[in-house]
Amino acid sequence: MDFANLVAQLNTGTILPEGIVLATLLVVLVGDLITGRASSARWSPYLAIAGLLAAVVALYFCWDTSNPISFLGAFNGDALSIVFRGVIALSAAVTLLMSIRYVEQSGTALAEFIVILLTATLGGMFLSGADELIMVFVSLETLSISSYLLTGYMKRDPRSNEAALKYLLIGAASSAIFLYGVSLLYGLSGGETRLSTITTNIVANNGEQSLGIVIALVFVIAGIAFKIAAVPFHQWTPDVYEGSPTPVVAFLSVGSKAAGFALAIRLLVSAFPMVSDQWRFVLTALAILSMILGNVVALAQTSMKRMLAYSSIAQAGFVMIGLIVGTEAGYASMVFYLLVYLFMNLGGFACVILFTLRTGTDEITEYSGLYQKDPLLTLCLSLCLLSLGGIPPLAGFFGKIYLFWAGWKAGAYTLVLLGLITSVISIYYYIRVVKMMVVKEPEEMSDAVKNYPPIQWNLPGMRPLQVGLIVCLVATSLAGILSNPLFTLANNSVARTTWLQPATMAIPEKVAIAESQRIATEPELSR
């Protein structure tokens, strides 16, 4: 068999974006070995960013492909996976923009950091389209192991080492739990690994009701909940976020979370449709706990990174509403929210990185009076935090409105009302930071702001950070006002994904049946 026939059989054109990322990774790795650390630091980050943007362009051209199935069914490059892969690639590109100065100032090797980050991006992109159990697990472990390495990358910092150790131990346990659930799924299906055929085999071998499938579901949800940092599987999040390098935290909060939600949609809808009521019940409990605990505990935080950690836990609870309702609008609202969450969350972390580089602290009280010394940083951080809180007309407001509207339309009234209440709570701790930066009198400035260094954008690595800051600022501001293209993209990504259609059609039927039963049991008022 020649090479051309092999490529045709595997349909490798579907994974062209991943191929571009892989080629970029190898060029950075080999180039660093050849040119040396000092030389490669000048060109490797820009090559990596160019490669990631080229992968996003390649994803655009994969949108209308007639045959998205690749690697003999192991990978499905459908429209939904394209959007998730784009979110992960963009999050890695913005993370690289804000990493250059941070990594160089810490005295560690930049090219190695880029290689590990691109490896994590590659794992997340493959995970978003994995349609077979072995590929799901290999992709998940590629993302996870790279994340452990990134977390402990600042090896001279004891907090980074502690965060990496905690992340590794809890992550290894969650991977083992997830693998046990997947192995149960494999056994119940009679040795089938393709997600699309697992359900058929399970029903044929065991019938629709099986204790084994429920046990497998519990273990699988535990593994997914760890990846998206949902309560009560969130214990690693605050410590890892506080101790890790801030650019790594930024990537974990967006790229890793997007990959986790992509896995949740594909695995739960494809492999567990016979127990859909059960997994929706479990996810409802996780969403309620995440929204309450994430927002309430964030009120008491004194560190910006820990506050954003609990904020990301709460945001995961909001996004889970779209997955729970299971309608076309629900899945589309998830996609839309992750698209806008990408820029507003990364923008917030870019501001934290810039403030830390200039002052050496991330304590919330040290932001007092920042507007007097750095108006651009104050404006960007204020808009990103207000967008996370859902203040109109910023992007986060429209994202939450879409999520809550999809949930209300599907009858998830409790979740929507709880989401509204906890959103109001979140506004308090976001506005507290904004108030400190803007309202404080000059004499009430913190010591860090009083000793604020002169703003110099011409230092090595500062221009890319400035570009990342402005991109996030513009996207967060305009994505809300000009949200129609993103709405269209989110809706089309769900409408074009064929395997989601049976699931989205079943939910309205259940709602209609329940509504007709309620009307039939009500007494006729006219009598």
From TrEMBL:
Q: Return one Gene Ontology term, BP aspect.
A: ATP synthesis coupled electron transport
Gene Ontology cellular-component terms listed: endomembrane system; plasma membrane-derived thylakoid membrane
The Enzyme Commission number assigned here is 7.1.1.-
Question: Is the keyword Transmembrane helix in the record?
Answer: yes
User: Do you know which InterPro entries this protein is assigned to?
Assistant: NADH-Q_OxRdtase_suN/2 (IPR010096), ND/Mrp_TM (IPR001750)
Asked if the Swiss-Prot or TrEMBL record annotates the protein with the keyword Glycoprotein, the reply is no
Q: Name one GO molecular function term.
A: NADH dehydrogenase (ubiquinone) activity
Q: How does it sit in the membrane?
A: Multi-pass membrane protein
Q: What keywords were assigned to this record?
A: Membrane, NAD, NADP, Plastoquinone, Quinone, Thylakoid, Translocase, Transmembrane, Transmembrane helix, Transport
List localization entries: Cellular thylakoid membrane; Endomembrane system; Membrane
Transmembrane annotation, as ranges: 15-34, 46-63, 83-103, 110-127, 165-189, 209-228, 248-269, 281-300, 307-325, 331-355, 376-398, 410-431, 467-487
Please write the reaction equations for the catalytic activity of this protein.
a plastoquinone + NADH + (n+1) H(+)(in) = a plastoquinol + NAD(+) + n H(+)(out); a plastoquinone + NADPH + (n+1) H(+)(in) = a plastoquinol + NADP(+) + n H(+)(out)
Q: Where does the NADH:quinone oxidoreductase/Mrp antiporter transmembrane domain lie?
A: 130-426
Q: Which HAMAP family match?
A: NDH1_NuoN_1
Concerning its family, UniProt says:
Belongs to the complex I subunit 2 family.
Subunit comment: NDH-1 can be composed of about 15 different subunits; different subcomplexes with different compositions have been identified which probably have different functions.
Its annotated function is as follows: NDH-1 shuttles electrons from an unknown electron donor, via FMN and iron-sulfur (Fe-S) centers, to quinones in the respiratory and/or the photosynthetic chain. The immediate electron acceptor for the enzyme in this species is believed to be plastoquinone. Couples the redox reaction to proton translocation, and thus conserves the redox energy in a proton gradient. Cyanobacterial NDH-1 also plays a role in inorganic carbon-concentration.
Protein name per UniProt: NAD(P)H-quinone oxidoreductase subunit 2
Q: Which gene encodes it?
A: ndhB
